[in-house]
Amino acid sequence: DLQGAVSVARQRINDLFAADAPRDIGLEGFLYDDHLMVWSLTIGFALSADPAEALTSVRQARSYKVVRVSEADKSVLSINDR
């Protein structure tokens, strides 16, 4: 299901970029390959090296990653730049 795959992808992005305090992590787009049973999810987020900066209302440039998640076991197969 899409919601489960998005949850896994968001958590992986949060874990990978934890040192940079990712924020506003969200689904930007998705594609499902029913032959391979794999979700390709475009996840957008903003990075802030300074945690105090994350509290300001200034919107910074977003980063985007394509996270491939297996439908069968909800494992992350790959993460690539968009």
Gyration radius, rounded: 13 Å
Instruction: Label the overall shape.
Output: elongated
Unreliable residue runs:
none
Beta-strand residue fraction: 35-45%
Compute the separation of the termini in Å: 23 Å
Largest beta sheet: strand ordering = 1-2-3-4
The residue fraction in helices comes out at 10-25%
Average pLDDT reading: 89
Summed up, the helix count is 1
SSE series: HEEEE
The protein's oligomeric status is: single chain
Folded structure, characterized:
- A four-stranded antiparallel β-sheet has the order 1-2-3-4, covered by helices on one side.
- A hairpin with a 4-residue loop joins strand 1 and strand 2.
- With 82 residues, the protein is α+β, with helices and mostly antiparallel strands.
- The chain contains one helix and four strands, in the order αββββ.
- The model has no long low-confidence stretch (mean pLDDT 89).
Topology diagram in text:
Blueprint: H1 2-16, E1 23-33, E2 38-46, E3 62-70, E4 76-81
Antiparallel strand pairs: 1-2, 2-3, 3-4
Brief summary:
By secondary structure, the protein is of the alpha+beta class.
Task: Based on the model shown, name its key terms.
18% helix, single chain, 82 residues, 4 strands, 43% strand, 1 helix, four-stranded antiparallel sheet, alpha+beta
